[in-house]
Amino acid sequence: GRIERRLGFGSRREAGDVALGPLASSCRQASLDLLLLGHTMAGLRVRDAIRTLAYIQSHPDARREGIGGVGFSGGGTTLLYTAALDDRISALVLSGCLASYRQSIMAIPHCEDNYLPGILRHAEVADIAASLAPRPLFAESGLDDTEFPASSTVATVTQVRKAYTLLGASDRLELEVFAGGHRFHGARSLDWLARRL
Question: What is the SS3 string spanning 91-119?
Answer without folding.
Answer: EEEEECCCCCCCCCCCCCCCCHHHCCCCH
